[in-house]
Amino acid sequence: MVRAVVCRELGAPERLLLEEFPPRALKPGEVRVAIRAAGLNFPDVLMAAGEYQLKPELPFTPGMEAAGDVTEVGAEARGVAVGDKVIVKMRHGAFADEAVVTPSQLTPMPSTFDYAEAATYLAGHGTAYHALIDRGRLEPGEVLLVHGAGGGVGLAAVEIGKMLGATVIATASSDEKLAIAKSRGADHLVRYDQEPFREAVKRITDGRGADVVFDPVGGEVFEDSMRCIAWGARLLVIGFTGGIGSAKTNLLLIKGASVLGVRAGEAVRKNPALGEVRLKALLRWAEEGKLRPNVSHRLPLKDYAKAMRLLIDRKAIGRVALLME
């Protein structure tokens, strides 16, 4: 029997159920993967609550990314073999013992990663890549302001921003989160509760401001960000964990600034070539040891609600993984 976390009614993580199902037979062109670890993302929480843009038909299994071993290859499935260690990309369905997918949903697992790291890599770092490279056009020597730098995508942005040659200002809510951000390359650290970040950015940049703002928080954080930007700044809207912010168009005009929405997955669905370039770069950087997810919590599948609460309560530093043991 195969265990899977099932959403039968929308709401809090505690409403989800861990159920057992018989394995499904493969159709032509499909592959079976024994999942060893699944990564948690905030959209998983939103999807289970019915608050995400994608609203799967009930019942469904949450989980957008996983890593494991190929155990069966169906007829007409090409480019994959039994025993391959792979990353599995899904829109939902990863919180389970196994996944039945097509080869196009599989990516070779970096040899430098364990299963938990592989299962928490592509969504966060892919979002950061798309934001900073495809949308923000971050250049060496520019100042990058990363909000929520202790979170999964924020920490990925710190890593990639530093690798691209930017001066990285990381903001977070605790010394512990900032210490991890520093270890991943942040040049300057700002705690929200000890100094207003807009004043800190002005101090650090001698009044010039940030060239690129990476904002997965939104709300007042987004609004205050417009008051500490340089001429021609790009404000990257990643998410709204702190609420939806309002753009002050006069501030954008005065600074010649741009506000850019970031949807890494949708961008690839509309332009697959964009995703191929991104994937090759991320896998190369992983193999070279330049990028690695920080997995602060690894919990068994049965603790899925506790794991999701770590994201809701912002207690994770980097990423959280479910282990299928």
From TrEMBL:
Pfam families: ADH_N, ADH_zinc_N. SUPFAM superfamilies: GroES-like (SSF50129), NAD(P)-binding Rossmann-fold domains (SSF51735). Residues 11-322 form the Enoyl reductase (ER) domain. One of its GO terms (molecular function) is oxidoreductase activity. This is NADPH:quinone oxidoreductase. The lineage of its organism: Bacteria, Pseudomonadati, Pseudomonadota, Alphaproteobacteria, Hyphomicrobiales.
